[in-house]
């Protein structure tokens, strides 16, 4: 279908003269913004114009429908005093998900005195501050609405929470500038350093993917619990915005505990939870989804027992060079000793086969093989007590792995920080001669 051409220089010149003549205050500049300034306009695009005025602070909006090429064009005019317009360029854009902005613009006319200050081919605005406090507070609103059975409240709060996430994750990602709201949205979803399942959870919370309020609540929890370990090293930047106590709480684990507290329905005390399945059982009337890495490449079901030679029991995509160094049990397993990467504290012991090790190395999430259930499980998928892998080492015999993790919450299914909480008596009175 052929559309009339977008507004040409004659159309813009006519409107520039009209706006100068109709202004209530002295005009010092007229700026074209939006898709026409970016040369990305379509036949349906508005013509966005800033009219910059001298004198006292002033702001107003006007809308016009103008005939052009036999077609009506929407002209959107924002009138603002020039000093507040310049000041606003030093503030974050409210539509940019906290990301910095570099949006093309085109000066249509300017007073000679002001031209050097406003003849800007690109309008730059800084990134927003990392709103960690607001992110956690909004999770509290999600939890409060959930406990009250306020389904609309859950959806509204979850959408607000998703809009705050990129401002915090920006600390852990390389800087990227955006030119439009659409570009900001795409960049916010594509941040490379982000929690597992981040894009899907963002779309769900923003209401752009269908889901129940139970799914939205679970997605909001995953976003916040996933963000905290990724930004822990940036506590100094958090302190500049929200104060030292919140930054210290991020480092010492209090913030993780508080978030875990928000995930429990009001009035229900914490209780131990076994991670019996990669997919949690939903509460009545709710559905919950979790991100679980995909199945082995062949899609084959696990065999009831491993090969006699101690080789891999299940199909795997593990690097052959690594697989060749493993010394497995008859069931095809290698012991995985898990420790806290910052303190060295031993947290738990579990089992990995070749595919579990592959998933651990490639997803950054600790993944194990359950000998009793004969299935893979991702630590934290049901409890929220995630393990973000920092390093994996193989011992000299190849029959054990040392997995260093960022532990969120308790590592033990009993609710203890470590599985090794039972002290045994040691008789040190024996003969040492």
Automatic annotation (TrEMBL):
Cofactor, free-text remark: Binds 1 zinc ion per subunit. Binds 1 Mg(2+) ion per subunit.
Subcellular location: Cytoplasm
Chain coiled-coil ranges: none
Domain Nucleotidyltransferase substrate binding per the UniProt entry, residue ranges: 134-231
Cofactor: Zn(2+); Mg(2+)
Enzyme class: hydrolase
Reactions this protein catalyses: 1-(5-phospho-beta-D-ribosyl)-ATP + H2O = 1-(5-phospho-beta-D-ribosyl)-5'-AMP + diphosphate + H(+); 1-(5-phospho-beta-D-ribosyl)-5'-AMP + H2O = 1-(5-phospho-beta-D-ribosyl)-5-[(5-phospho-beta-D-ribosylamino)methylideneamino]imidazole-4-carboxamide
Residues annotated to bind Zn(2+): 396, 412, 419
Keywords attached to this entry: Amino-acid biosynthesis, Cytoplasm, Histidine biosynthesis, Hydrolase, Magnesium, Metal-binding, Zinc
Domain Phosphoribosyl-AMP cyclohydrolase: 348-421
Keyword Magnesium annotated: yes
Domain of life of the native organism: Bacteria
GO biological process: L-histidine biosynthetic process
Pathway it works in: Amino-acid biosynthesis; L-histidine biosynthesis; L-histidine from 5-phospho-alpha-D-ribose 1-diphosphate: step 3/9; Amino-acid biosynthesis; L-histidine biosynthesis; L-histidine from 5-phospho-alpha-D-ribose 1-diphosphate: step 2/9
CC per GO annotation: cytoplasm
Segments of this protein annotated with the region Disordered: 262-317
EC number(s) recorded for this UniProt protein: 3.5.4.19
NCBIfam families named in the record: PRK00051.1
Assembly notes: Homodimer.
Reported function: Catalyzes the hydrolysis of the adenine ring of phosphoribosyl-AMP.
Family: Belongs to the PRA-CH family.
Protein name: Phosphoribosyl-AMP cyclohydrolase
Organism: Micromonospora echinaurantiaca
